[in-house]
């Protein structure tokens, strides 16, 4: 009874806004306070099958190093660009995601499949598929904020030329923690992260491909901001940099802890980034600086309009 009470307290600290019942004790007892995460910073080519094959190879390598949750980068099977999305788009399930399902089962890991251009009912989406250790599709997240920007003299990009926006949130549960999903530009919208924290997420994962203009200015800043604002771990998986590509990714896949410290960070080259996620640290920070209990719900609120 004492163990269950202590675990319930830990869960309440880690998952603000969630009601903990005695019936949750079996789930709580199964939680592990630490696990290894891997981010695969993949060099993307114009050959889809090669991208998928090499991604699966890196996933296997990460699993042998003890990773329990592995993430691929945004558009891992396709060059990033509006002219490429229609050419590389596929259904989910489909060719690329079937391979991800198989390798997740083979390695018995939770696999966040970065994102791929998805075709559904005549529309294209930038979509992340997540697979469990048995190969089951656990979640599918369609990027809700499209990357439409214009920085004069530096970069203009309009995802909405070919892509449609998603309209729902996506989380999934693991034996370690609840995970919330976003893709790249979604990281700029603090409300999304706040809602995920309200829903009990302790880890937010954003496969993303910032560029040479926004990357040096905002990539790490936004990750640390989302982590500190919501007292969560934040992980970002970028493609490796290819200076010859039409769209040059910033790289620097990163893991940040709830204190805003960078735990692990890649350079620009192809690499696997590992980080040990410690949920006891998260609980300690939330106890020391209890912002969730101190929020003024009588004065303001961030609410979810649609599940």
From TrEMBL:
A molecular-function term among this protein's GO annotations: omega-amidase activity
Entry keyword Signal: yes
GO cellular component, one term: mitochondrion
Keywords carried by this UniProt record: Hydrolase, Signal
PROSITE patterns per record: CN_HYDROLASE
Signal peptide: 1-22
Signal among keywords: yes
Domain CN hydrolase residue range list: 35-279
SUPFAM superfamilies assigned: Carbon-nitrogen hydrolase (SSF56317)
Coiled-coil regions listed: none
The EC number(s) this enzyme carries: 3.5.1.3
Any Pfam family hit: CN_hydrolase
GO biological process, one term: oxaloacetate metabolic process
PANTHER family: NITRILASE-RELATED (PTHR23088), OMEGA-AMIDASE NIT2 (PTHR23088:SF30)
Family: Belongs to the carbon-nitrogen hydrolase superfamily. NIT1/NIT2 family.
Protein name (Swiss-Prot/TrEMBL): Omega-amidase NIT2
Organism: Colobus angolensis palliatus (Peters' Angolan colobus)
């Amino acid at each position: 009874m004492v163990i269950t009470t202590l675990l319930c307290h830990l869960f309440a600290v880690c998952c603000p806004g969630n009601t903990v019942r005695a019936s949750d004790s079996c789930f709580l007892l199964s939680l592990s306070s630490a696990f290894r995460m891997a981010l695969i910073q993949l060099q993307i080519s114009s050959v889809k099958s090669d991208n998928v094959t090499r991604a699966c190879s890196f996933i296997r390598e990460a699993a042998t190093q003890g990773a329990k949750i592995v993430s691929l980068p945004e558009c891992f099977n396709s060059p990033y660009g509006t002219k490429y999305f229609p050419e590389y788009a596929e259904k989910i399930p489909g060719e690329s995601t079937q391979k991800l399902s198989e390798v997740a089962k083979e390695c018995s890991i939770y696999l966040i499949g970065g994102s791929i251009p998805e075709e559904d009912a005549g529309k294209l989406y930038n979509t992340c598929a997540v697979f469990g250790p048995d190969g089951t599709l656990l979640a599918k997240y369609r990027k809700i904020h499209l990357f439409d920007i214009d920085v004069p003299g530096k970069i203009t990009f309009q995802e909405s030329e070919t892509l449609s926006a998603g309209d729902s949130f996506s989380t999934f549960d693991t034996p370690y923690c609840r995970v919330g999903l976003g893709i790249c530009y979604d990281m700029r919208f603090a409300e999304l992260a706040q809602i995920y924290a309200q829903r009990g997420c302790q880890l937010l994962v954003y496969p993303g491909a910032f560029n040479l203009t926004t990357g040096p200015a905002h990539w790490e800043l936004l990750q640390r901001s989302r982590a500190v604002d919501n007292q969560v771990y934040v992980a970002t998986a970028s493609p490796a940099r290819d200076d010859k590509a039409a769209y040059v990714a910033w790289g620097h896949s990163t893991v940040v802890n709830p204190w805003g410290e960078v735990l692990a960070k890649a350079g620009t080259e192809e690499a696997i980034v590992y980080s040990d996620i410690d949920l006891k640290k998260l609980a300690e920070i939330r106890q020391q600086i209890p912002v969730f209990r101190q929020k003024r719900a009588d004065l303001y609120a961030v609410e979810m309009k649609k599940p």
